[in-house]
Amino acid sequence: MRSAPSASRVLVLNSGSSSVKYQLLDMRDSSRLAAGLVERIGEQTSRLKHTCLTSGAAREENGPIADHDAALKAVAEELAKDGLGLDSPELAAIGHRVVHGGMFFTEPTVIDDAVLTEIERLIPVAPLHNPANLTGIRTALALRPDLPQVAVFDTAFHTTMPESAARYAIDPKLADRYRIRRYGFHGTSHAYVSRATAKLLGKAPEEVNVIVLHLGNGASASAVRGGRCVDTSMGLTPLEGLVMGTRSGDLDPAVIFHLQRVGGMSMDEIDTLLNKRSGLFGLCGDNDMREIRRRMDEDDERARLAFDIYIHRLKKYIGAYYAVLGRVDAVTFTAGVGENASPVREAAVAGLEELGLAVDGELNAVRGDGPRLISPENARVAVAVVPTDEELEIATQTYALVGKNS
């Protein structure tokens, strides 16, 4: 059963292993109606924070929330208090963030039993994320089985990469058997930001080549040619690529063998080391860039080294993707660090003036909520800051698909 064409609201759900983030948007003007977070699901100290953005009312509930089923029912109750319940005829669809879609899902997809089965089959390449995403989907389907529900995949934007970028240099038959290839992540962010950058430049996405730098606790870079991703830094998992808050990023694979053979570490211990105790945290004990900068101001050598390694890796990817694209119209910073840490932006392009890259000190220091240029006037390559909006991207893709299928 399809929603009536007059229905214009989309509920966006991002189900993690112990959390659910949500936003309700009205797609007539892309406005937010409500937003919230349920965290520490399954614990005695669970918490639900809900904000009705039309009235400004904010509520918080503390106490045990047993599972995702209870969490989503609690979300539905909070929305209903504001007259925005899941039974509203104005709700057109629910859009779900799904981290891994493999090569099977190249675009947003209406969820049915076959889609659920394929997402489940991808669990071995996304063991931390896809199970939680599936739990959220199944719970939402139970609450509103009549409503179109759409999966929007983090990996989909990167499926346009050529085989030369997506393949690792290992036996293709072995790689295909175990689905080993470079998938990339943060795709909804890279898609949104690359299009927003083109708009900022007054051009169509098809006319623009952009290097997008999504810098948060997780971090990734992408090379986008004419609106299509041609390379990205994350690979089979989100571990590859840039230095991140707690992830190592690029690493000689032999380090793993060395830690096992010489260090006597188990594979689980190595997994924890590289994903949760490396990156900025592993280098200096902090994964918050603000704290690292504060420590640098106090001449903390470990913080300085961590920052320098972070910037060195970032600068290498800018140069590499400049070479991949051949012509670059813009380098765009986004996500928590990219949007707020002006010293990171300045350091990342320092010394790249021969490539046409520079930032204007005054423009770079200005904090703002919207997309903006921070490069000097008439710069050969624009340097931009574009706040990412993954929820809006998921809602937009979901609503477009539901409209086509109505």
Mind sketching the topology for me?
Blueprint lengths: L8 E7 L4 E7 L4 E9 L7 E6 L5 E5 L5 H14 L9 E8 L10 E2 L2 H9 L8 H14 L5 E5 L9 H4 L5 H6 L9 H14 L8 E7 L3 E7 L2 E5 L21 H8 L5 H10 L2 H6 L4 H9 L3 H25 L4 E5 H6 L1 H8 L11 H5 L6 E2 L8 E4 L4 H16 L1
Parallel strand pairs: 1-6, 6-8, 9-12, 12-14
Antiparallel strand pairs: 1-2, 2-3, 3-4, 4-5, 7-8, 9-10, 10-11, 13-14
Which descriptors apply to this entry?
406 residues; alpha/beta; 6-stranded mixed sheet; 38% helix; globular; disordered N terminus
Characterization of this structure:
With 406 residues, the chain is α/β, with parallel strands linked by helices. Helices cover 38% and strands 19% of the residues. It has 15 helices and 14 strands. The protein has helices at residues 68-81, 113-121, 130-143, 163-166, 172-177, 187-200, 254-261, 267-276, 279-284, 289-297, 301-325, 335-340, 342-349, 361-365, 390-405, and strands spanning 9-15, 20-26, 31-39, 47-52, 58-62, 91-98, 109-110, 149-153, 209-215, 219-225, 228-232, 330-334, 372-373, 382-385. An eight-stranded mixed sheet has the order 5-4-3-2-1-6-8-7, with helices on both faces. It is globular, with a radius of gyration of 22 Å.
